[in-house]
Task: inverse folding
């Protein structure tokens, strides 16, 4: 068993899965392969007010839980979802998605992603 | 993309992985196979004050994020961890673990578990 406090994990500038940096978006990898987690990873994102994660896609699905703040999740099929604390978002594999912080405080959420195996 | 609010998901009496009921412990399966999630599931647990999840084990690992309340996670090696909001716990595969709500309010946490494949 391994316990840590989220603030003790480094808050890094976020990048897309292809390495593209995303301005004013930060990520803590709370639980990952370095902790022995082999199936999926837990990340905690902070998106500053006005910042955006551009539309992008990848084979990994996402399971998301909104902790604080308000924002919009959208995909390339015209679906838009306003999110608030306590909302859950599931993004299936390969669905292109983007996120805007439309509020006045940080949009903070957990976003879990699988380590895929052949 | 699928969005829901956690309160719109049924809060069920919890059971251990072998089906044993656990008194005063409730679980919402926020994202699971019914949503198309094939890699892992997101559950939100509520443990009432004084309630306990007894020591038990299984092959699935757990990734846990404490939302509210206070409690103790322990294993069968004598390790005990006091948890508070913002704490993260990783429980490896097959490590026996138990949880006590040692506080005066509900102990609420997200607990994610893989769907294992051969």
Result:
């Amino acid at each position: 068993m391994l316990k840590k406090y989220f603030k003790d994990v480094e808050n890094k500038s976020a990048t897309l899965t292809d390495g593209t940096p995303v301005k004013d978006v930060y990520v803590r990898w709370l639980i990952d392969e370095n902790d022995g987690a082999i199936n999926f990873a837990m990340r905690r994102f902070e998106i500053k007010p006005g910042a955006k994660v551009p539309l992008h896609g990848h084979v990994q699905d996402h399971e998301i839980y909104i902790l604080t703040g308000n924002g919009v999740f959208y995909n390339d099929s015209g679906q838009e979802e306003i999110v608030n604390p306590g909302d859950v978002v599931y993004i299936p594999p390969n669905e292109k998605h983007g996120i805007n912080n439309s509020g006045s405080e940080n949009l903070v959420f957990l976003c879990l992603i699988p380590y895929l195996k052949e």
Notes: The mean pLDDT of chain B is 96.
